[in-house]
Amino acid sequence: MDKFSKVLSGKVVAENVLEHVKSETVRLVAQGIKPGLAVVIVGNDPASQVYVTSKGKKAEECGFLSIKHELAENTSEAELLSLIASLNADEALHGILVQLPLPKHINAEKVVQSISPDKDVDGFHYVNAGKLATGSLAQAFVPCTPAGSMVLIEKVLGTDLSGLNAVVIGRSNIVGKPMANLLLAANATVTIAHSKTKELPSVCRRADILVVAVGCPRMVNSDWIKPGALVVDVGINRIAPGTDVGSTSRLVGDVDFDDVLNTVGTITPVPGGVGPMTIAMLMANTLKAACLANGLPQPAF
């Protein structure tokens, strides 16, 4: 196998997901149902502005009703909660997303939990986290990054992971914990590792599936990898320019891609791996919300 055949492009898989979303949206619109997504941003954080614009554009491309609420940095928590309450009550909207981070004077957890679980397309509400943890995947909105990572894993290994060992490095509520629950639901034997795990490299070497989400550039090297393993690199880190004249900063993952390439069976690149899948699954979740709201069967991805 040459090294290029080992690289699993998230861009290609994401485009397939989005094409499915678009075709299903056409079917819904023909029945008088147009999926609606509202994105809320508070303040002028440049990265957040880019993300929100990208999500809104993708929603429009999918044929959704796309609404953006841009609020000033000094917007009060009460004002934001009032807006969310009005979005919860708007039957034309099936998904609500509040772009994080929020200004420090706003309690982000309180805001996220104020979103109706039925419109929580980010999958962060306690109700959706509980459904996922108890195996009710069909009714849960799964956080988009682990959901997209799982689609990539299934592309390589199928939907039944019985007999396979999976290690997830990272225990966040956004990626690590939901990722572990998805792998458990697919019958993998799952270990959640983190900064307090002893002998972390040896733990990782047992993994047939290794998912890395720690935010530490190139932390994982070939010594951590079981030969032939599937590695999903969720990390995205901007590193300083190199020593070459004219070089610029660039994005790298939590895995040392070049070092592990000869050892892995398959690996997702950074950029172009999990990233495109995240926004694709946001669109899939919004479509799912529209179907559930209207008592219609939801498409599988």
Polypeptide structure, described:
Helix 1 (10-30) runs parallel beside helix 10 and helix 6 (144-157) packs across helix 10. The chain contains 10 helices and 10 strands. It is α/β, with parallel strands linked by helices and 301 residues long. A 5-stranded parallel β-sheet has the order 5-4-6-7-10. The mean pLDDT is 95.
Gist?
With 301 residues, this protein is α/β, with parallel strands linked by helices.
Structural class by helix and strand composition: alpha/beta
Q: Helix count, per DSSP? A: 10
* Subunit organisation of the chains: single chain
Report the average pLDDT across residues: 95
Q: What is the share of helical residues?
A: 25-40%
- Return residue spans where pLDDT drops below 50 for at least 5 consecutive residues: none
Distance between the termini: 28 Å
Q: What is the N-to-C order of secondary-structure elements (H for helix, E for strand)? A: HEHEHEHHHEHEHEEEEHEH
**What percent of residues are in strands?**
5-15%
Please give the order of strands in the largest beta sheet.
5-4-6-7-10
Annotation, overall tally of beta strands: 10
Based on CA inertia axes, which overall geometry fits? Answer: globular
Rg estimate, integer Å: 20 Å
User: How would you sum up the major sheet?
Assistant: 5 strands, parallel
